[in-house]
Amino acid sequence: MAGAVVAGTAVAVPLLTMNSGTEQTPSAVLVVPEGWRASQVYDAIDKALRLPPGSTRKSVGKAGLKLPRDAAGNPEGYLYPATYPLRKGATPESLLRFMVDTAESKFDAAPIAAGPQHDAMNPYQTVTIASIVQAEAATEADMGKVARVVLNRLERGMPLQMDSTINYALNRNTVHTAQDDTRIESPYNSYQRMGLPPTPIGNPGADAMRAVLNPTPGDWLYFVTVKPGDTRFTSDYTTHMRNVAEFNSRHEGTGRAQSPSRTRSSSRPSAR
Fold first, then answer.
1. Interatomic CA distance for residues 271 and 139, integer angstroms
2. What is the three-class DSSP state of 59?
3. Which among 124, 138, 133, 111 is positioned nearest to 213, based on CA atoms?
4. How far apart are alpha carbons 196 and 194 in whole angstroms?
5. Distance CA 202, CA 172 (A)
6. Band of the pLDDT at 253, cuts 50, 70, 90?
7. Where is this region: Disordered (predicted)?
8. Nearest-CA neighbor of 231 among 216, 214, 253?
9. Averaged pLDDT for residues 3-19
10. Do 53 and 42 form a contact (C-beta atoms < 8 A)?
11. How far is CA 95 from the centre of its chain?
12. Which of 28, 33, 1, 6 is nearest to 17 (CA)?
């Protein structure tokens, strides 16, 4: 699981000055990285507009956002990762609307219902899966495989057991999840609850969306990143646990070793 949450890690928001013409006032832009959570976007807008902390979060309800009904007013997953201009007079409401409108145009253009494996998925569920893929995949090349793991587990009625959903519930970013973490009471605890979390767990980019719409063919049910650049996918639990053991041996004494009974995207023995 090493390196799986880089895209979701909080970083300084770049505020770039760009001269678009000699007679125009220089403008700044706000860069929203792929995988950022709504809370991170809110904080970035507050800083960019030099507003008191919490201002953007409080403005969500009055921004008139065009969200799907399933979102119930929560823009998580629809604050599309992109570079946004900070024009004169920009407000939290105008920036949030710009982000959501951008997401709507991008997602509406995608063939979300294409293929038999997507017949039972609505657009909101697709975005939710993409947010998990964004958080879990160590590389862009792994996204299609991670998407396939999620879909395979849903098809089989297995709990997702993704560490990224635990991180979201605990409002943190880490590659280490303890056994006690998997027992927390939360609708985002995908170890204890079946199906998808109630909302996306971040704002996915185009690559993650494409991975869900066109997942890599395979029967994988488990994966673990043993070391950077070496994520191992398998359908065999015994093989998976050997991979987990190798991960643990590499990180012994670092505080990142996994319990032998669980690891990212794996199941505890009791769930088998």
1. 28
2. helix
3. 111
4. 7
5. 12
6. low
7. 246-272
8. 216
9. 34
10. no
11. 21
12. 28
